[in-house]
Design a protein that fits this description.
This protein is an all-beta fold. It has no helices and eleven strands. It is globular, with a radius of gyration of 13 Å.
């Protein structure tokens, strides 16, 4: 089992940056891939980025490639999502996921 706590969301103007953090506690983290998802109002939850245990393998959905960067610090049991050049369409609740476990989400709002 693992508990996941996201932080770092907020309100930012278009073109701005935010860094989200996902702090994990519990056994289910070591060795696991971690994913960031987002869900905008009226839309389905979608995967944004993933990172494997070593950090050497990452995935990004097309809409965030070149703008977002996922990283992890296994010693701190934390995964980060650096979001640059934010757009209004990035507005959503952002969640991290490990195995079958989800965090509670953090709101990101990008104003135009």
């Amino acid at each position: 089992q693992v508990q996941l706590v996201e932080s770092g969301g907020g309100l930012v103007q278009a073109g701005g940056s935010l860094r989200l953090s996902c702090a994990a506690s519990g056994r289910t983290f070591d060795g696991y891939t971690v994913s960031w998802y987002r869900q905008a109002p009226g839309k389905e939850r979608e995967v944004v980025a993933t990172i494997n245990w070593t950090g050497f393998s990452t995935y990004y959905t097309d809409s965030v490639k070149g703008r977002f960067s996922i990283s992890r610090d296994n010693a701190k049991r934390t995964v980060y999502l650096q979001m640059n050049s934010l757009k209004p369409e990035d507005t959503a609740i952002y969640y991290c996921k490990v195995s079958i476990y989800w965090g509670q989400g953090t709101q990101v709002t990008v104003s135009s």
